[in-house]
Design goal:
96 residues, alpha+beta, 3-stranded antiparallel beta sheet, 3 helices
């Protein structure tokens, strides 16, 4: 059985669906609250939690691009033979 490539699926993570979700969980859209024209603002406000949110959608799975895979391979090659079992090691620090 072949794994489905979920990164190729559109899904419902678009702004309209997320706006609906936000209002259902107690958030409000910020744009209608701004009266002046041309003001840059965040997308959502959750007053009770004192949280301001911005909606972003990743359209590329950057972890699987040829460039990223080549960079990760290069880092592993650089530390070939090291013990990678803990956070104090060079490879862990470079990747994370």
């Amino acid at each position: 059985m072949e794994d489905k490539d979920w990164s190729a699926e559109k899904g419902i993570a678009d702004e309209a669906h997320f706006n609906e979700f936000v209002t259902e969980v107690g958030g409000v859209l910020v744009t209608p609250l701004i009266k002046r024209e041309g003001v840059k603002n965040a997308d959502y406000l959750f007053r009770d939690a004192c949280v301001v949110g911005e909606h972003k959608i990743m359209e590329t799975d950057f972890a699987q691009t040829p460039e990223t895979l080549a960079r990760v391979d290069a880092v592993f090659a650089k530390y070939k033979g090291e013990d990678f079992s803990g956070e104090s090691y060079s490879l862990y620090r470079e990747l994370f």
